[in-house]
Amino acid sequence: MSNSDNSFSDSERAGLYRAIYERRDVRSQFLPDPIPKPVLMRLLKAAHHAPSVGFMQPWDFILIDSLEVREEVLASFNEENAKAADNYTGERQQTYRSLKLQGITESPMNLCITCDRSRGGAHVLGRNSIVDMDLFSTCLAVQNLWLAARAEGIGVGWVSIIDQTRLADILNLPENVYPLAYLCLGYVSEFLDKPELETKGWRSRLPLEELVHGNGWGKPLIW
Amino acid sequence: MSNSDNSFSDSERAGLYRAIYERRDVRSQFLPDPIPKPVLMRLLKAAHHAPSVGFMQPWDFILIDSLEVREEVLASFNEENAKAADNYTGERQQTYRSLKLQGITESPMNLCITCDRSRGGAHVLGRNSIVDMDLFSTCLAVQNLWLAARAEGIGVGWVSIIDQTRLADILNLPENVYPLAYLCLGYVSEFLDKPELETKGWRSRLPLEELVHGNGWGKPLIW
Question: Are B30 and B184 in contact (CB under 8 A)?
Fold first, then answer.
């Protein structure tokens, strides 16, 4: 029942770390080339092998290639983005408006990963104390897909500037199904070396050492 | 500014997929051997390179090797688990009670990944419409760490049967900091071939095809 050899080769391990470090949130570099079905199914299978609370597997995958549906989603983005821009003033607002924050119609395929909050019945193992564990599990599936996509040369962008009630309407979701992640997928002209928000001076990467604590908040770990 | 060669070698890609498919939620196979600091820091660096909304990086990493702290956490698990067991009856309850659901003190290191909900100020880019995007980002960091751990031969188990208010007290978290994931980390005697809940007949893996929809809920995708 076990894998007798647990260990990864150097190149296998390097591949995993490469996907982690070279993954990007893509908005501007999408190519129109369609993603072949076998490749898309590999991405969904990777997502489906994420851990989930009580093996609940609360996710569904709605693939969206219809331009009509994508334009409805884009209209919701545009409304929400106009509201968001009003949160900033002066130079910061100018920078905000200069950022491209979605690739809904430029990418050839959109994907909504949903969370069925009723799956597995009333008492899902491990979801007694923290009821949002089903949403958290679905996020883990998103990250599996995002990394697999990078290894396949496919860019992914998560569109979070969106009205989820309206999105649920557009996709005709049942009442218990929450549209957790709206993703744009496509081959890309390039993967940027750094996150775009870092390059454009929006925010910097925090020093990792400042985020590490030992045995309680704000205490150093004695190694 | 771009990586001229986007593509992964076959073995790099295989390494990523291997981590995804052979990752397990570990509770019973922990070895007591300590994890060297450079290895632990590689895992935290992998987590720190997850995508985050508005490049918010809302996570902190509390490493816990103190047995005293871990025993307090275990006490919270035991209380919550007793309550959870009462949700089941008969044979199902017997099965539930036979499952090992945590490795808090058997593993040499625990790690709480938190989410600072105030980081980046009042208006984090992309967190206007969906306020929980900070929690979702932190989950993506958890999955990066989980996969990197697998590639390093380290097992990870997420303890979700826990009172998070009490956990925040034990770890002395500031008011805005949410203890999203409490993880047990350690080298393992083996990685099981399949999820333990599947092997023990608790739940089966769902057929992927049934979870794929096209352009709206319940509709097939025309390829």
Answer: yes
